[in-house]
Amino acid sequence: MTTRLFGEPVARREDPRLLTGQGRYLDDLGRDALAAAFVRSPHAHARIRDIDVGPALDVPGLVAIYTWEDLPERVGRALPLLIPHPALTHGRTAYPLARHVVRHVGEPVVMVVAADRYTAEDACALIEVDYEPLKPVVGLEEAVQGAQLVHDDVPGNVGAHLVQEVAAADGRGAREAIETAPHTLAFRLDIERSASMPLEGRGVYARWDGHDLRVYSSTQTSTSVRMAVAAALGLPLPQVEVIAPDVGGGFGVKIVHPWPEEILIPWAAMTLGRELKWSEDRREHFISSAHERGQVQYVRAGFDDDGRVLGLDVTILHDHGAYTPYGIIVPIVTSTQLLGPYKLGAYRVEFSAVYTNTVQVTPYRGAGRPQGVFCMERTMDKIARYLGKDRTEVRAVNLIQPEEFPYDQRMTFQDGRPLIYDSGNYPEMLRMIKELIGWDDFVRAPGRGIGIGCYVEGTGVGPYEGGHVQVTSDGRVHVSTGLTSQGQGHETAFAQIAATELGVPIERISVVTGDTRRFGYAVGTFASRAAVVSGNAIALACRKVREKALRIAAGALEADPSDLQITDGVVHVVGAPTASIPLSTVAVLANPLRYAFDEETAKATQFSGTASPDRPPVAEGEEPGLEGRDYYSPIRSTFAAGMHAAVVETDPDTAEIRIVRYAVVHDCGRLINPMIVEGQIHGGVAQGVGGALYERMVYDSHGQLVNASFMDFLMPYATEVPHIETAHLETPSPLNPLGIKGAGEAGVIPVSAVIASAIEDAEGIAIDRMPISPSELFGLRTAHAR
Amino acid sequence: MEHEITLVVNGVARRVSVPARRLLSDCLRHDLGLTGTHVGCEHGVCGCCTVLLDGQPVRSCLTFAVTVDGRELTTVEGLAGPDRLSPVQRAFAECHGLQCGFCTPGFLCTVTALLAENPAPTEEEVLEGVSGNLCRCTGYQNIVKAVHRAAELLAEES
Are residues A723 and A602 in the same domain? Predict the structure, then answer.
């Protein structure tokens, strides 16, 4: 059994339980708990005149009904603004239950607790809320006119306005560079809303034993939920534990916290002294969690005869929905990651984050990048078309070259740190994608086109993650990290790292994530960061444990630690395999005992003769136990990259769009588990196909989400997703010990750009919207023919 | 008003008292404690709640428990053999056909029924066969691969 597992397609250790129905998702817990349900606003914008709970009081099984008025001051406060930013001058967040005004359909107004969910919903149906409807603000362009306001004290509905500008080498700004460029183009792009839409919705389950609170949440950050809950409930942090059980997908929406329910359910559980659970249903997820993507972009580009971009000026209207709990991370990411693998002459980007009476906008896989990449890649295609050049040729002249790393884009990234690309090889990547899709040999025909899209993704953002590794006296290795898992295979990938670092068979390693009882300091799983940040932290913790194990074993074997290595869980002298001691025994020796509990541990007791009577049993500077804890805090993000290409066919009559081939070249540095990375890419591409062709949130003029079900919000089935051909380039990151970059979001990022590029090629019509449906393409054809 | 019903779940007769409106999915999960069957949309589109009713895949979220009184049900908990996972389960693991695992029980039940009816499906038949189940993680490629692999394993072991 080899323990060099880093880089191997190791079978997932999560799978046996998930394949047999033994997973423990949020709603699988707390079988005897009371159930909560919510009365949610049917209006996009309204003042609450009165709430009459009277008719619900006789429902058998009803336990409690709460409105905002019933909440203690601390619990009823506005939810935190998680990521403040100086440009977010008018940040606004919701209250756990609506206070006087509702600002989108789905906002929670009343919480009902009952014996079961059926009963709770019965009671909800009988509660009468008297609303005074206000005129809703729907649509970006209507919102910025500011005739109606989402928040009375936010003029023009603009929550944030930010300009970032990078001058050309000669000091000229983007606008001047464009004015004086040999060629210029100006155009507008429209990007629709979509949403993370994990198949398991959100959910919270809380238990209060009179002193300690335990909360389970289907979250991407249990440590931060814990801090938010402790603060809202006024509890000392050590009395609160938060656990993310098996989580049925996240894709961004579950990084937001605390959700109203994450405060209300624990509070009510404490107040009532009863276990309480709430599981979000699908309609609730559509209208009361979060969406993303919606933007309008106004673009101006100036370029030379080769297609080199001399100046780019982008103005973005970003639809932020009703609230900004996650700050302005999404438009910041759009603005900065728009640059992709290119070095531009000068760049100016300006965005306004705009409030509307719709569901709030927070990151969804890709987190603003799909919009930025759509903008840049549409620009590249338009330049190529204008100059009559091959689209890959225009990209090639703009690429950052391998010898130019680290490459400073001279902007501020989403982590507040400089946007400096650590490593990459973009020309090689372009060569690979052209070869993989057969770009140069592609035979164009009416209704058959080829497209390309390139991106760079900042991954592995800080501030930090930690890892704890403990070897117990049975020789097992227990690894924990604070961030959470939603299907990324962390139990496998982190075990591979530990197996490789420690020289222990993977079967003896177990990994726990997202449980504050095991690891209290963490940030969370988002921004393609888990493998980079926790992976490196675990590797560093393993190195500490290894060093300690070798030190103790050296004493026992009377050898020099530098002559020792660990193979299959046994420490031995290099070249003398019989001079050895198993890690289990090392773990025993690491913990001097007074009391033995078995034969093995008897070796560590005080009369066993294994310790010198002249020294304290635990030497100065040492700690008992064979364990280690370490943290990895990256100086900056590490930048993964990829290029995708596709062949599409469009039906001449129905305008139906079929993806015939889809190819991906991907570089996330060193791969821990190529099978898992490919799985992440496949899933990302499928979500990208949804965003490119199907998914949109359709609001009517009253602010009603008219497609709030899986019947009408079209997510791809197996029949809609093409076979994905994948190739990897491995450019290690110089920033972290393992040389890895993140991979979680990659697949989704360029897909809309790629499909638009291919449709445009097939049809000869500019594609400036995402998604594009057959009827929209049909409309474009009709307009084009006139 | 409650109704006494008997469901034969994974070969075991289970008596349970439920109101007429109790969904089969809720009955399995909350009354019988078989939480492997998941609920993703409660309107019959996602397929997470798929179970086998007398061998045929059905949406347990669109079925009232009282309507299947006396019938035989197989849930994900009943797919494995006494000593090891079923060929479909093994194929999903081998081909990395699952990530978060939430939709997986529905796919496993659907595919088990599909291969019982058609032991050697073509690519088109596999796509069609799983096109009633949503997965938000995998992009389906490895699920489709797993179905073909499961067909191979079933053929080898029959």
Answer: no
Residue numbers of A between 253 and 312 with CB closer than 8 Å to B? 281-282
Segment (H or E) for A298? strand A295-303
Q: Which CATH architecture has domain B2-77?
A: Roll (3.10)
Q: Using one digit for the tens of pLDDT, what is the confidence trace for A541-580?
A: 999 999 999 999 999 999 999 999 999 999 999 988 788 9
User: At which of A271, A288, A305 does a domain end?
Assistant: A288
Across the interface, whether the CB atoms of A282 and B19 are under 8 A apart is answered: no
B71/A574 Cα distance (integer angstroms): 65
Integer angstrom CA distances of residue B111 from A301, A720, B75, B136: 51, 18, 13, 18
B:26-65 residues touching chain A, CB 8 A cutoff: 29-30, 33-43, 45-46, 48
Residues A105 and A206 in one domain: yes
Q: Closest partner residue to A686 among B45, B76, B139, by Cβ?
A: B139
- Chain B residue with Cα closest to A708: B41
What pTM was estimated for this model as a whole? Answer: 0.96
Q: Which of B45, B100, B141 sits opposite A249 (nearest CB)?
A: B100
- Confirm whether A441 is domain-assigned: yes
Residue A359's pLDDT band, with cuts at 50, 70 and 90, is very high
Size of interface A-B (CB pairs under 8 A): 171
Residue A81 covered by a domain: yes
Compute the distance between CA of residue A658 and CA of residue A647 in angstroms, rounded to an integer. 9
**Cross-chain Cβ contact A721/B75 below 8 Å:** no
Q: Are residues A298 and A431 in the same domain?
A: yes
CATH code assigned at A597: 3.30.365.10
Picking from B22, B75, B139, the nearest residue to A682 by CB comes out as: B139
Query: Which pLDDT score, from 0 to 100, does residue A3 have?
Result: 62
Domain shared by A474 and A404, yes or no: no
Nearest to residue A722, comparing CAs of A777, A663, A652, A654?
A663
In a domain, A3, yes or no: no
Which residue of chain B has the CA closest to A489?
A: B99
Fold of domain B87-157: DNA polymerase; domain 1 (1.10.150)
| Ramachandran sector of residue A496 (left: φ over 0; alpha: ψ -120 to 50; beta: rest) | alpha
**Per-residue confidence (pLDDT) for residue A1, from 0 to 100:** 40
Last residue of a domain, one of A632, A648, A675: A632
One-character DSSP codes across A25-51: BGGGS-TT-EEEEEEE-SSSSEEEEEE
Look up the CATH number of the domain holding residue A272.
3.90.1170.50
Average pLDDT score over chain A: 96
| A203 reaches B (C-beta below 8 A) | no
In a domain, residue A321? The reply is yes
Domain extents in chain B: 2-77, 87-157
Q: What pLDDT, in 10s, does the model give residues A84-101?
A: 999 999 999 999 999 999
Q: Do A248 and B134 touch (CB under 8 A)?
A: no
Q: Is A590 found in the same domain as A650?
A: no
Q: Domain total for chain A?
A: 3
SS3 content of chain A, % helix, strand, coil (to 5): 30, 25, 40
The 10s digit of each residue's pLDDT in B7-41 is: 999 999 999 999 999 999 999 999 999 999 999 99
Mean pLDDT calculated for residue range A492-515: 97
Residue A89's domain comprises: 33-133+196-288
Measured from the Cβ of residue A774, the count of other Cβ atoms closer than 10 Å reads 14
pLDDT attached to residue B121: 98
What tokens were used for A342?
């290119």
Give the nearest partner residue to A28 out of B35, B48, B75, using CB atoms.
Answer: B35
Query: Which residues 572-631 of A are in CB contact (within 8 Å) with B?
Result: none
How far is the alpha carbon of A316 from chain B, nearest alpha carbon, in Å?
29
CB A754 within 8 A of CB A761: no
For chain A, positions 662-701, list CB contacts with chain B under 8 A. 675-676, 678-687
Same domain, A381 and A509: no
Residues of A in contact with B35 (CB under 8 A): 21, 24-25, 27-28
- Mention every residue, 6+ apart, whose C-beta is less than 8 A from residue A785: none
